[in-house]
């Protein structure tokens, strides 16, 4: 049996608890090789922000996956970054991790659904900072929309970018404490 290859596309949510849970779930299903793709920030592509995100997130993802997670810094356009990565290597699944709907630029760009055009196999992971679930065709989109509207009515899953950064730092500290 060969390892499943899974591409994770994330930036601010690269080490969010929901993404880590999605990685752990897939690792528990069987052998997997994960690659974390972090696109450069569009507002300042010359910074090392993407590399710093990789540096902080990779140890957490390694511990969660139980194996080394490869890291890639991509183009400023997340769609182009995914396209270039998928042209270089074949992946069995793509997980897109975004900020909540009200602040996510990637959701406004419809990134998760645009990636489907690349012919990535049916089962695609979609992990929003507030919720992790799998998209599988139009039924998956319908369930996703129902869940988001229900969460909006109840006021759940409203995580700000600052909370995402705190979450990343807290998770990193927990890993250091655990390794000590």
Write structural notes for this entry.
By secondary structure, the chain is of the alpha/beta class. The protein has one domain (4-179): Rossmann fold (3-Layer(aba) Sandwich), CATH 3.40.50.620. The chain is 48% helix and 19% strand. It is built from 7 helices and 6 strands. It has helices at residues 17-29, 49-65, 78-88, 105-108, 111-115, 137-154, 161-179; strands at residues 4-9, 32-39, 70-74, 93-98, 124-128, 131-135. Strands 3-2-1-4-5-6 form a 6-stranded mixed beta sheet. β1 (4-9), α1 and β2 (32-39) form a beta-alpha-beta unit. α2 (49-65) crosses α7. The longest helix is centred in the last third of the chain and has 19 residues, at 161-179. The N and C termini lie far apart (35 Å). Mean pLDDT is 75; it is low at 122-126, 129-146 and 157-162.
Quick structural gist:
The protein has helices at 17-29, 49-65, 78-88, 105-108, 111-115, 137-154, 161-179, and strands at residues 4-9, 32-39, 70-74, 93-98, 124-128, 131-135.
């Amino acid at each position: 049996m060969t390892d499943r290859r899974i591409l994770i596309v994330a930036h601010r949510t690269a080490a969010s608890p929901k993404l880590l849970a999605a990685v752990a779930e897939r690792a528990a299903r069987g052998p997997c090789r994960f690659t974390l793709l972090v696109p450069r920030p569009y507002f300042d592509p010359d910074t090392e922000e993407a590399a710093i995100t990789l540096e902080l997130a990779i140890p957490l993802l390694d511990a969660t996956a139980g194996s080394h997670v490869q890291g890639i810094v991509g183009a400023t356009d997340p769609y182009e970054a995914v396209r270039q990565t998928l042209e270089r290597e074949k992946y069995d699944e793509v997980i897109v991790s975004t900020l909540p709907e009200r602040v996510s630029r990637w959701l406004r760009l419809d990134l998760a659904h645009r990636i489907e055009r690349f012919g990535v196999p049916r089962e695609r992971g979609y992990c929003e900072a507030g919720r992790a679930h799998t998209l599988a065709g139009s039924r998956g989109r319908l369930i996703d929309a129902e869940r988001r509207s229900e969460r909006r009515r109840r006021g759940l899953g409203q995580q700000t970018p600052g909370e995402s950064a705190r979450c990343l730092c807290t998770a990193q500290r927990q890993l250091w404490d655990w390794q000590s």
